[in-house]
């Protein structure tokens, strides 16, 4: 009984500490918001469904659709959220078959695009949780 009580108090304290840390530091793309495994998955979806119009993430190819990892892209997305990027991809891409990507594929693609824009990977996978995604700014 006593030990359980101490455990509950400890958990409550940790919850308070954890909460205040999160309150001070909103999630940032610099904290590692996706995993390396997602980048691999996203990369293969990209190669199959995006590459033909957008070109390689790292290539200089002015004749293709909007590049997803160049200065123009970063300028356009700085200050906007990952939620917005997620929804655009899910609802409007691929432009020749919009609405066909699953939430998981879309999240993997966002991870792949973040990786191509040199944001660090981390331990927690990015999910289609729009409430969380809309708190994370795309801010290279
Ligand atoms: C049939 C060609 C085509 C395909 C396939 C395609 N896109 Fe696009 N995409 C476009 C065009 C065209 C635009 C708009 C370009 C513009 O407005 O300058 C665009 C815009 C975008 C944007 C917004 C770019 C920006 O600068 O804001 C994103 C993000 C995007 N596409 C992601 C994807 C992803 C991810 C895939 C693969 C699932 C994909 N697209 C597949 C043609 C395509």
Write up what this structure looks like:
The chain has one domain: Cytochrome c-like domain (Cytochrome Bc1 Complex, Chain D, domain 2), CATH 1.10.760.10. 55% of the residues lie in helices and 0% in strands. The chain has helices at 2-24, 36-49, 51-54, 71-77, 82-92, 103-116, 130-133. Helix 2 (36-49) crosses helix 6. 24% of the residues are buried. Residues 16-22 have low confidence and may be disordered. The structure holds heme C. Residues 49-50, 52-54, 65-66, 68, 73, 76, 85, 88-89, 93-96, 101, 109 line the site of heme C. Heme C (HEC) is lined by residues 49-50, 52-54, 65-66, 68, 73, 76, 85, 88-89, 93-96, 101, 109.
Structural class by helix and strand composition: mainly alpha
In total, the number of strands is 0
Distance between the termini: 51 Å
**What ligands can be seen in this structure?**
heme C
Write down the overall mean pLDDT.
Answer: 86
Inertia-based shape: globular
Q: Main beta sheet: strand number and arrangement?
A: none
**CATH domain class:** Mainly Alpha
Task: Give me the number of helical elements.
Answer: 7
CATH superfamily placement:
Cytochrome c-like domain
CATH topology name, in short, is Cytochrome Bc1 Complex, Chain D, domain 2
What does the radius of gyration come to?
Answer: 18 Å
Helical content, roughly?
Answer: 55-70%
Q: How many distinct domains?
A: 1
Strand content: under 5%
- Output the helix-strand order: HHHHHHH
Spans of 5+ residues with little confidence (pLDDT < 50)? 16-22
